[in-house]
Amino acid sequence: MIPLVKVAMPPKERLMPALEEVLYSGMIAEGEYVYRFEAEFAKLFGLPLALSTSSGTAALHIALLLAGVEPGDEVITTSMTAEPTNTVILQCGATPVFADVDPQTGNLSSSAVAAAISPRTKAIVVVHYAGFPADLRGLREIADQRGISLIEDAAHSLGAKYDGQPIGTVGDFGIFSLQAIKHMTTVDGGMLTMRDGGNVALAKKLRWFGMAKGVPRTEVDISRPGFKYNMHNVAGVIGLAQLETIQQRIDRHIENGSFFDEAIPKIPGLTVTRVDKECQPSYWLYSVFSDSSDSLEHCLANAGVAASKLHRPNHLHSVFASVRRPMPQLETYYRRLTHIPCGWWVTDDDRQRIVDALRKG
Fold this sequence. Notes:
Number of strands: 13
CATH topology of the largest domain: Aspartate Aminotransferase, domain 2
CATH class of the largest domain: Alpha Beta
């Protein structure tokens, strides 16, 4: 079976000696390996800075707090995402306001976002779903006009670009996930970037109980509570090893995605995600649309290919029942959606097998 997602690890001969070195170094908590990883990550992906966290969700929580999101505020967001994108809004005491999506991309519709803004709106959280950049130009204009923060949830889109700019650099804040099955993993972890470097000191305090690192514990003063959101050296050393080959893996995702872009639309009854001219996707997942997603999944399963919708629209969960609203375009998108394997593990023969199965189906 060709899996839909798969964990990527550096070669054993590279990773194991590095892990042994840090595990027996006497310093496995946050330290030099983490700081080196942050610097190299920012450099490789063209970010102004990178602050590591224990998860992408932790990075998003900090971004929301830095954006000033408080109890009683509203955050415009998408329902078409993994659940932590929106449960973390609830953790802030704020209300997620679901805006509809573009049915050809699954990403937030700028016009729907504009219509959802109210006097209580404090931020917009945009997910670049499946690795396809959203309409950042339109969303940036809305955020600037209304004086609210734009936060890019780039958990799916490491290495993607919008109008030549790295994903994560158009918003006021950007977050990345290093969870097990993403383009790149540190087993678990995340990264936070931001345009305003003046927030760095506070961000570092928020990820470490509200305390500044490097100050004797007997001398620190906590002025607001923080969290246990820091990364440790074991994850940092894995991340450093991953960076050595991550571009090759992302390139393979893109090669496979480009192959499907060319081949699948030629099959009657199937369409794929629209890629606007400003967008350079990194294809974490590949999305195929049909009038019968169940039949498509069954067809692929018979050919030894894993396929599914993967996520459940968040507004369908009971915890979001009070903020449900009609989203007809999302309903159309989700009903027709099937994700197929697209990652670094998909060989030339595999991707041809997938196309052949779709064609026969």
